[in-house]
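Subject — a protein and its fold
Encoding — discrete vocabulary of local shapes:
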Amino acid sequence: MAPPLGIIEGYFGRRWSWADRAAVVRILAPAGYSFFHYAPKGEEKLRRKWREPFSDADARQLSDFAELCRSAGMRFGVGLTPFGCNAGFDAEDRAALKTKLAQLDDIGIDDLALLFDDMEGSFDALAERQAAIADVAFGSSGASARFLCPSYYSDDPVLDRVFGARPPRYLEDLGSALDPSVAVYWTGEEVCARAISPGHLGDVAERLGRRPALWDNWPVNDGPRMSQHLHLRAFTGRSSAGGELLSHHAINPASQPQLSCIPALTLPRVYAEGDGYRYGAAFREAALSVCGEELAAMLEADLLTLQDSGLDRFGEERKAKLIARYAAVDHPAAREVAEWLKGSYAITGEELQTQ
């Protein structure tokens, strides 16, 4: 059985346009995706500058997109990252958080995701502090569904190296302190998990005291290394048996919105087809649906080059030929390939530090 499927726009780097998001909703809603969480790392008013209000123009765009999602049968939510609150949560922080949430209520959100990723976490009583922030946030919001991303959202030791050693029993303490209705995002055994097994999900559920909400980092391709690759292949390493162990399954898309829809369309098939799922056939059918016959055939023929080789290993002559080939196709997905080949989606280490 499939859990509710969704998109969490949670990548670093170049942001999608509102037209891009609308196109993704139109493609994925009919395939069974039922929620969209807006949380791009480049959205300062939800991250580094979260205390500042959205401008009237930005608020209108968010409100219009929320209505578009609902008209397509999808819930709309935002991901808010309250930078600075891990280290202390005083009266001024509480007031700023309530003010921000009042604006989000005016915009019209169905879901609120409180995100503690990308922040230092080696503080005493971190889980209890974050649960207290969550109580204020969710108690001040009109959103009917609540999500939270922990600071340590995976067992991957890279998080401890980057953000400080996680407190002992952090996940268990956080799960115990949070209201049972809060869905907790989790990426798997790694930040970008190659496989997510029912055994692992069962272990996480036991530690959290609830089924996790999967923040699936596929087909995301942000970061200096991953932005050198187009993640086009169908989902693998996910089991239909895991569906009963999840509260939700959200994918973090690639920087290229149209191309993201190719792997995204294969995920519902993982759940629907079970042991009969074939990732090669799923890719071909999804590419045909998104791109049409000519472009789908081109992408399949170039899959090893676009996904596996890495842009930094292309010679200039080879790159120029590929750019000309894809630029000749009048389709937004072909334009994304050409722009990627030109380096327009490259992400620097500085962006990871400042977004």
Q: What stands out?
A: DSSP finds 14 helices and eight strands in the chain.
